Amino acid sequence: MGILFFTNIRASSLFGGVEKITTTISKSLRDMGYNVYNAYLNFGETNVISNCFDCELHVKNGFSSNDFIQFLRQKHISKIICQNDFDSLIALRKTIDDNNLAIKLIFVHHMTPLSEVSFFNWETYSRSLFKKKSRVLKDIACALTWKIRYQYVKYRWIRKYREISIHSDRIILLCDKYTEDWVEITDSIKSKFLTIPNPNTYTPNSNNYKKKNVILVIGRLEESQKRISKIIKYWGRICFSNLSWTLKIVGTGPDLNYYKYLARKNKISNIEFCGYHKNPIPFYQEASILLMTSRDEGWPLTLLEAQQFGCVPIVYDSFKSLSECVGNGYSGYIIPNDDDKAYINCLQDLINDRNHRLVMSDNACEYSNNFNIEKIIPKWVGLINS
């Protein structure tokens, strides 16, 4: 019995949350004696050789190609686990049905249901308008038709969710609340769904790190989802009274230059843009506080990783799995969404109280143990053997 994980980008422990999760789960399954494979469309980290799979396949010629079908048969694939790729799942279903393959197709969604619609928001979209004189009339038309465009985007995504519900044998979501949302959106049968949270991807030895006066932001620098502009503005209000502290922003993305502009505009000197790093561990080890202001997330690895290394998170209450990811008041703080004053006050209080910060750092390490792979993998085994 072979298990095939399909990822849009080649699975690697150094590239992306979905890919990192895939390698963590695969390694544990292989240690238990399962034959596990990875098929992918795009290379991503081409110079990284993974030892988490029995074999990897670059799907060059599409899912209906002879080489892909032959691979499925030769490796005796019994289950394909499609990681978060809507269009590919539909294509995989067609290949399975057209070739009479006895393969169960499982879809794993790594975000909040319909989060794709929340990213298409006026706040972010409007920043792209009226930047060129030659586009003024077109931009006016876009602004006037915004609500219609938004409803069309929502309609298209709801239709995609319904297609996934029809063509999947099982659907894996990250928390029970997401199942309720998906069922409401699509009128699906609840028994098709299974909840499996993301596991930790690191194994720190202890919380003996020498914490510094560092506040950390880590992730893709994309305003539509991450809303990092909020963090920069908050830090701009209190940075001058906390000159011994530094805000470090780790990552890259389409809005990097915009964030640098905000830092210059607010005359923030104690801020560092550290760029993309394959290994973020040193940043977690030194940082005392992690900030997150995302519009939406599924089950963010950044929160798990920060807590593993005793970095205390402050997060907006903007996605439903958050109450499971963070122990509010114990391992971190969950702030009412968009409450600027509460967020800034919480950050300042945590900066001021070193002893409390150290207690919460230890709590964070302890809380993160709830998501060790040993506690998560039995759910995957149950799914595979069903």
Spell out the blueprint of helices and strands:
Elements: E1 2-9, H1 17-31, E2 35-42, E3 55-58, H2 66-74, E4 77-83, H3 86-98, E5 104-108, H4 115-119, H5 122-125, H6 136-144, H7 146-167, E6 170-173, H8 176-186, E7 193-195, E8 214-218, H9 223-226, H10 228-238, E9 246-250, H11 256-265, E10 271-275, H12 281-286, E11 289-292, H13 301-308, E12 312-317, H14 322-325, E13 333-336, H15 340-352, H16 354-368, H17 373-385
Parallel strand pairs: 1-2, 1-4, 2-3, 4-5, 5-6, 6-7, 8-9, 8-11, 9-10, 11-12, 12-13
Helix pairs in contact: 1-17, 3-7, 10-11, 10-15, 13-16
Q: What would you note in describing this structure?
A:
- The strands form two sheets. A seven-stranded parallel β-sheet has the order 3-2-1-4-5-6-7, sandwiched between helices.
- The protein contains 17 helices and 13 strands.
- It is 45% helix and 18% strand.
- Helix 1 packs across helix 17 and helix 13 crosses helix 16.
- The protein is α/β, with parallel strands linked by helices and 386 residues long.
- The model has no long low-confidence stretch (mean pLDDT 90).
- The protein is globular, with a radius of gyration of 22 Å.
**Major beta sheet, specifics?**
7 strands, parallel
Give me the side-by-side strand order of the main sheet. 3-2-1-4-5-6-7
Q: In sequence order, what are the helices and strands, one letter per element? A: EHEEHEHEHHHHEHEEHHEHEHEHEHEHHH
Outline, from the CA principal axes? globular
Model regions low in confidence, pLDDT < 50 over at least 5 residues: none
What portion of residues belong to β-strands? 15-25%
Distance between the termini: 12 Å
Please state the CA-atom Rg, rounded to the nearest Å.
Answer: 22 Å
Q: Give the number of helices.
A: 17
The total beta strand count reads 13
Q: Report the helical percentage.
A: 40-55%
Give me the secondary-structure category.
alpha/beta
| Mean pLDDT score | 90
